TrEMBL record, chains A, B:
It is an enzyme of class 1 (oxidoreductase). It comes from the Bacteria. This is Homoserine dehydrogenase. Its EC number is 1.1.1.3. NCBIfam families: PRK06349.1. It catalyses: L-homoserine + NADP(+) = L-aspartate 4-semialdehyde + NADPH + H(+). SUPFAM superfamilies: Glyceraldehyde-3-phosphate dehydrogenase-like, C-terminal domain (SSF55347), NAD(P)-binding Rossmann-fold domains (SSF51735).
Length: 437, 437
């Protein structure tokens, strides 16, 4: 039996969940890993605060140095944010402690140098909880798909925005109203920018990009759009065209060690895409790889218990699972994705007054005639049309004036969203599809 | 750099896939695991047969002993079936070789004794490919969720039957016609019993039961129903009630080391269940656990490449991942699930001639009045009703005569299917649901 002393930084949602999981599942952990994980010291800001887990009261301190002086081999960082978390993690690694963290911002922005520091000190830095909460996505990529070349990842990595989009679609309610309600219910922060503007997703995508593609991409260089401009009308039109709108993290690598594209933003998913049915606060990741073909992981992306699960699994793995090989991130391999990448695009035209538009089919034919390949069109509402949704097979930034001129439209607001294709539709062959059994 | 010699038994679909993956992804495997996996010898039945992978021609033999005499540390068994696979695997283990296999029947029926043999010889037996094809479900349970108590598993583990049910639902086509077409396309075997009668799923569930619940359950004791009796009418009525029908592998454990229930059969899934959207040849597993809450894994459950992926991942993990602790399967913990378990049930009444039934709502009220709790009713077709679908909140084997008498029905065929509840609906609390982020 191995005994491991743990120093815990922070006793908020995640810290409390970790205390409870270590207590409640102590027997399972001992049986399966022959390891006793003991919390020796807990750093808090306010020692007077009433705690959910009373039995740790005697190990509480407000002095970080005291945590390091305790009999510990691992520090669990559950404070969040950059400061003072970064300093503490650096000091813990310097002191020869392993570190397990749920801190996506810290790992996204400083993961590379922290990993380098850990390697230099002969310790490990694990951060499963930083992406997808309880879903073991990093472990799956690192340990269970390592003979595969993963060439595309698509993720729903923020529960708050997925919850908002789900309710907007189901209730046909506008963004602001659903957001206000989510804030009231505690499902969204008072300042919702990190979620709804896509920052949170960008952190997670940066982490995935480093792990999956070995691409070290500064978060600030990841193109990012939020969901504020999505309307229930767009959601309704998309559904009638066979799509849903999700806030997606998208990463693609064009060959092994080749250029990488990362982007965050709302995009259309075909209703038959494995991520399309992922609703509410659930998170999910879809991986496309050369041997396994595609794997989807779905689970709860946040919350006390799921996040604690990922932290505790990291603690169990520290002394059991092999370290990932030292990465040689290819810093120059980053390819900026373009909004004008020539891929399929949903185009939404919104007029102040009813549009004089014939039927969707007639509209498609007119656009085909002038050389614009349209895969679908829908008019909303049918009588007294004020909105128009079109799926372009390929999109080019030169199209808007052509489109508006052909339709004889003025004073119309045109917005576009990328459309994600189905796995395999680009290169499906019978052999790849395989025979089921 | 470690060099591992591999002896391959069988060069059919899986064996060919393994050869190709080891060749095509050699660089990735070397980079990430510092291991060179070399196929040294391949056992085939017919050495004259033209092979897809030509470069292994010089290592082909028809003599099993010659494989063992080659410079190998691992045997990959890719023959399938019980004989001679079982003998070969035993001999390989006896000879001190690790074994990786995709053979679900062998592991389901003889896994326990083969593991015991492997342990005694100080080698390992890995079989990720035996359940869910490319989906790393066994690895996830063993390595990435080991601090969790998993209390329920629900799986779609057979691509052929899921393909058939998907097409029956989408095309409203009868079982026999879809099966015949699937056979013609090579999606179903000439003798479809293993798939459509649920044997294949029972093998996989037995393996999962041993791994997840430490329950050693003989395959023959797993209650098993196939999909032959499912009709497009049932599928249509279920959908109108908010459900779909899937061939499910269901396993439940009522407390740590407590009694276990395993069963295979068609069951209703609420359309919002994470497994409901899994279509066609895809497989999926839904895990419910005490800390992580629930995780769903979806992927291709068969086919040359996905299966090869799982085999090759096992090869990479042989010398890297920790062995699972020795199991102490609780042989007496098996609880036979009952068709009369008091859970929710879909009841289908099929008459030869039109039924004189009032509206579904009226029907529910009548049944409530005599003490039968009905959550939904649907009549098909509305005009000249010949079929009737009911969702009972709880089902009891004494109900059919009461039901038929109350409705004044005679000569009516009554069949029932269990209904799977949503994760958490039994004990959801706000704290468990957590706050998204």
């Amino acid at each position: 039996m191995r005994r491991i002393g743990v120093g815990l930084l922070g006793l908020g949602t995640v810290g409390t969940g970790v205390c409870q999981a270590l207590k409640n599942n102590r027997d399972v952990i001992v049986k399966r890993t022959e390891t006793l994980l003991e919390i020796e010291s807990i750093l808090v800001r306010n020692p007077e605060k009433k705690r959910l887990v009373e039995e740790v009261q005697d190990r509480i301190t407000t002095d970080f140095e005291q945590v390091l002086r305790a009999d510990i081999q691992v520090v669990v960082e559950a404070i969040g944010g950059l400061d003072p978390a970064r300093t503490y993690v650096e000091k813990a690694l310097e002191a020869g402690c392993h570190v397990v963290t749920a801190n996506k911002e810290l790992i996204a922005k400083h993961g590379a140098e922290l990993e380098w520091l850990a390697r230099r000190r002969g310790v490990r830095l694990l951060f499963e909880a930083s992406v997808g909460g309880g879903i073991p996505v990093l472990g799956t990529v690192q340990h269970l798909l390592k003979s595969n070349r993963i060439h595309r990842i698509t993720g729903i990595l923020n529960g708050t925005t997925n919850y908002i989009l789900t309710r907007m679609e189901e209730e046909e309610a506008p963004f602001e109203r659903v957001l206000a309600d989510a804030q009231e219910k505690g499902y969204a922060e008072a300042d919702p920018a990190a979620d709804v503007e896509g920052f949170d997703v960008a952190y997670k995508l940066a982490i995935l990009g480093r792990l999956v593609f070995e691409a070290e991409v500064p978060v600030s260089r990841i193109p990012r759009r939020g969901i504020r401009e999505i309307t229930p009308e767009q959601l309704r039109l998309c559904r009638r065209l066979g799509y849903t709108i999700k806030l997606l993290a998208q990463g693609e690598q064009y060959r092994e060690e080749g250029p990488v594209s990362l982007q965050v933003g709302p995009a259309l998913l075909p209703l038959s895409h494995p991520l399309a049915p992922v609703k509410g606060v659930y998170n999910a990741v879809h991986l496309e790889a050369d041997v396994v073909q595609d794997v989807t992981l779905i689970g709860q992306g946040a919350g006390e218990q799921p996040t604690a699960s990922a932290v505790v699994e990291d603690l169990c793995n520290l002394f059991r699972m092999p370290a990932a090989p030292g990465l040689s991130p290819s810093r120059d391999s980053f390819l900026l994705p373009s909004d004008d990448d020539g891929g399929p695009r949903f185009v939404y035209l919104e007029a102040g007054e009813p549009l004089q538009i014939s039927s969707p089919a007639e509209l498609c034919r007119r656009l085909q005639k002038i050389g614009l390949a349209v895969d679908g069109a829908v008019i909303h509402p049918e009588d007294g049309c004020r909105g128009l949704g079109l799926i372009f097979r390929r999109w080019d930034p030169s199209y808007p004036p052509i489109l508006l001129a052909e339709l004889g439209l003025e004073g119309v607001r045109l917005s576009t969203l990328p459309v994600q294709d189905l796995p395999f539709t680009r290169e499906l062959s019978a052999a790849q599809a395989g025979i089921p059994g």
